[in-house]
Amino acid sequence: MNGVYILQIDLDELIIPHADINGKKSPTYTELLEYLDTQYPDAAYYRFIHSYFPMTMLDSSNASSRMISLRKTWHYPPHMALDRSKCIYKPHRMGEIFTHFGKPCNESYKEVVIPPDLGLMHHYRNSVRNIKFKASQDFSVPLRYSQSFTHNDLYQVLYPLVYSK
User: Highest mean pLDDT range out of 14-18, 30-34, 90-94, 150-154?
Assistant: First the structure.
């Protein structure tokens, strides 16, 4: 990886790699960022399209898991609402960083919108308004990441916040 990154994200959101990278079906953020850096060498930041995973919909077959991200598989189609996407920034290439977008420090650096088949921001929330799309299921998180999530240090630290009661 080329340096330091800033990930600005809420506690009810997860950016999930969806691509097989170098034959690995559950890449880490490090592997995803290394891949993106080789594909987009002039990137100032990566913007991830979001998809709502409503907490009010039924749980998946992983209902025994205490982790919401492993139970909630019903979601609405990904869409690029500028007020909801989240980004991973390269601060040394940024002039300004905002909650949902940024401004590169000069014209040689660009925003890169990540297609959903590479990575997607999963947004877990109770109320979702004005959604006019049909929901579908996405089992990528339970199938790809259930083992790494249960052993991930971050989730052990954030246990009270990301696990349901």
Answer: 90-94
Residue 1 lies in a domain: no
| Number of domains present in the structure of the chain | 1
How many Å apart are CA 40 and CA 106, to the nearest integer? Answer: 16
CA separation (Å) from 147 to 76, 86, 150, 152?
25, 25, 5, 9
- Whether residue 97 is predicted with pLDDT greater than 70 in this model: the reply is yes
73 with 142: CB under 8 angstroms? Answer: yes
Contact 79, 131 (CB under 8 A): no
In a domain, 33, yes or no: yes
Return the CA Rg of the chain: 16
**Residue carrying the six token digits 């959604």:** 131
The better pLDDT of the pair 74, 128 is held by 74
Has residue 154 been placed in a domain? yes
